[in-house]
Amino acid sequence: MTVQEAPPISELLDARTVQSIADEVWPSLVGDGEAFVPVPVPPPTEAVSAWVDMTRPPTVVDDEDVADALGELANVLGGNIKSVLPGESRLGLPQIGVAPPHGRLDDVRSLVGQWRGNFLTITVQGAAPAPHAERNEVPL
Amino acid sequence: MRALVIDDSRAMRRIVGTILTGFGYEVREAGDGRQALDALQEGSAEGWVPDLCCIDWNMPVMDGLQFVMAVRATPAYRQVTLMMVTTESETGQIVKALAAGAHEYLIKPFTADALRDKLALLGLLPEEVSA
Hints:
The complex is a heterodimer.
Chain A: H1 9-12, H2 15-30, E1 37-38, H3 46-54, H4 63-84, E2 108-115, E3 118-125
Antiparallel strand pairs in A: 1-2, 2-3
Chain B: E1 2-6, H1 10-22, E2 26-30, H2 33-45, E3 52-55, H3 64-72, E4 81-86, H4 91-100, E5 104-107, H5 112-122, H6 127-130
Parallel strand pairs in B: 1-2, 1-3, 3-4, 4-5
Helix pairs in contact in B: 2-3
């Protein structure tokens, strides 16, 4: 199955599935058992700095650390979401940016959450056109 | 015990490294498979061969599966235990990694206890930790 032929992501994933993955992944990464609590308000992201903080001694956290942590969070969340999608799909390397390329704006599963008082949004968006997933894998 | 932690995420290298250090491991890090092969080569030259490699799958330059295959093709590294530590969780991926020569497979996110259990299974948990 090619990505172009795949049904919309919003048909493949329901909000409860995204929520359950966030509930499992987030506390596992931050390590203190606090759930990722959904809230009905718009985001940004100081929570990521807090997570970076927990992965290292209390030194200065620079932009590169924040980008790295965001990428790994996206990677782990993406991998877990991929595992519940039917058919074949591939996980690309995470890309960090202020304005990531838009996929299908009408094909979105989004979760706005709060962790330690900070807001964070997880959005799974259908791709249009097919995403470029870089792989270095050698077939067996 | 010695471990080489291979992941393109610094945060994840730090998490795995910190847990392993807590178990008494001496830890080195690499950011992709190519760097890891270089680290193995340089380590060998100075007598530092890891007991364990913790390997992410999706990395730039050389991914984890390529690294596993390269290590398995090198007789000098036959004693090195290879454990995938990755978000790739489908059965097919796990089978593929094990077929390529990985000994164990740990899916992210994981806890320190899960890593400890895997090391115990592999016989790579120092006695003072397992006691």
